[in-house]
Specification:
The chain is 38% helix and 10% strand. The protein is an alpha/beta fold and 421 residues long. Strands 6-5-7-8-9 form a five-stranded parallel sheet, sandwiched between helices. A four-stranded parallel sheet has the order 2-1-3-4.
């Protein structure tokens, strides 16, 4: 499917749901002013259904979409995936220029935040070369950025409507004027350069300012995925079926046979989706020191806990430091496979052992302590939500962080199983 436009934005800017709101308003105007089918108007990440392999999906859309709409903000130009998305679309523009002799003006920038108010050198050259200061959109939009207008519609409703109508018109005219061929080579997120940093693309290297809560040695771009699960030898002392275990804690595969990969691999995928650098480690590797250092450096920690591990002394001892405090930068997830016969047979005992280890965290209404995750989809969605919360805690440094909208957030169900409340 060929989309009329691709909305490119930093996941950090999606907090509060304002990106979704703007996207919906823009799509509504485009549907009213064109004959484009509703399902091909625009593409944004939160429109993907659960379970979609997002990398090939996004790569294919970038290979064929007609207009590229980036949301300018300081965070946008610091996000690797955004630089890769821009680069993929820019390659298609250059290919068109080589064949037709002119560069198609198919990038329609949106000032999400006021990036032009400070040092202009903080904007990559590849973006600074695209004019974003339309005289038709002076006033609150240029002064505050579109996010403020979306947030305060009651105050800036007319100005906001004018911006959306104007942007829709620019998108329609650009798509009408230029017919950009699809690329033969889809974007490879593992190999593609970030054009916001690449000097090969004629772009000034960006050295982003240090963010709130982020130290020079780490920061909330790093997440430690700590696996608390026994090895196959240790598991054999507790249960009969040990097919889900391996030689290391990180080999634990709780969702077999539906998901044959270790759960930490699934967690790493979610972290990379959110532009985080994952660091998988076993819980026996000095958890207490890791927690203290991560808190000092503003890094994130997520414990992936097998309920069976809470019956093994070495693991209960290792996990004890976590429950001694309430860490705002940490979360706990307890995968639970309801198809596992031994899980069902020992559910009450396992529930009790989990409560004994996480006596404080499991008994409080703690949004970053998530138990009884019955499927890999439940697990991955819960991890997305937990990562947003604990990253926001570090960014904002308060107890009730503003939530990002990172997909279909679901109400937390009251499920049976260890860790459920």
């Amino acid at each position: 499917m060929t989309f009329l436009f691709f909305l490119s934005y930093s996941g950090e800017d999606a907090r509060g749901g304002y990106v979704d709101e703007f996207y919906a308003d823009l799509a509504d105007v485009l549907m009213r002013r064109t004959t484009e089918p509703e399902d091909s108007i625009g593409f944004q990440y939160t429109g993907m259904r659960e379970g979609t392999l997002w990398r090939p999906e996004v790569a294919d859309v970038l290979r064929t979409c007609r207009v590229f709409v980036p949301l300018y903000s300081p965070r946008y130009f610091r996000t690797r995936f955004c630089g890769q998305e821009w680069g993929a679309f820019a390659e298609r523009q250059r290919a068109y220029e080589q064949r037709q002799g002119c560069l198609p003006e198919l990038i329609v920038p949106v000032l999400w935040e006021t990036v032009f108010a400070g040092d202009a050198d903080q904007i990559p050259r590849i973006a600074a070369d695209v004019w974003a200061k339309s005289k038709e959109l002076a006033g609150p939009y240029q002064q505050f950025g579109l996010r403020r207008l979306v947030k305060l519609k009651t105050r800036f409703g007319d100005a906001y409507d004018d911006v959306v109508e104007h942007l829709a018109g620019v998108i329609i005219e650009a798509a009408r004027q230029y017919e950009l061929p699809a690329s033969d080579d889809p974007l490879d997120f593992d190999a593609a350069p970030n054009v916001f940093e690449s000097t090969d693309c004629g772009t000034e290297a960006l050295v982003p300012a240090q963010r709130v809560g982020e130290s020079a040695g780490g920061g909330p771009r790093h997440v430690h995925l700590v696996v608390a699960a026994p090895t196959v030898t240790e598991a054999a002392q507790q249960r009969t079926d040990v097919v889900s275990y391996g030689n290391r804690s990180e080999d634990w595969m709780p969702y077999r046979p539906v998901e044959p990969r270790p759960v930490v691999r699934c967690a790493m995928r979610v972290a990379e989706e959110q532009d985080l650098t994952p660091h998988p480690v076993g819980v026996l590797d000095r958890l207490s020191e890791l927690l203290d250092k991560a808190e000092a450096d503003g890094e994130l920690v997520v414990l992936l806990v097998d309920a069976w591990a809470t019956r093994i002394p070495a693991y209960t001892e290792a996990l004890t430091p976590y429950d001694s405090r309430l860490y705002g930068n940490c979360g706990v997830l307890l995968p639970w496979n309801p198809a596992d016969e031994e899980n069902k047979a020992h559910e009450k005992e396992l529930h009790s052992s989990v409560l004994s280890v996480f006596n404080r965290n499991a008994r409080l209404p703690h949004p970053t302590f998530r138990g009884a995750l019955h499927s890999v989809d439940d697990f991955m969605q819960a991890l997305r939500e937990v990562l947003v919360r604990i990253q926001s805690f570090v960014f904002e440094q308060h107890d009730v962080p503003e939530l990002a909208n990172v997909g279909a957030f679901v109400a937390r169900p009251q499920l049976e199983g260890p860790g459920a409340r």
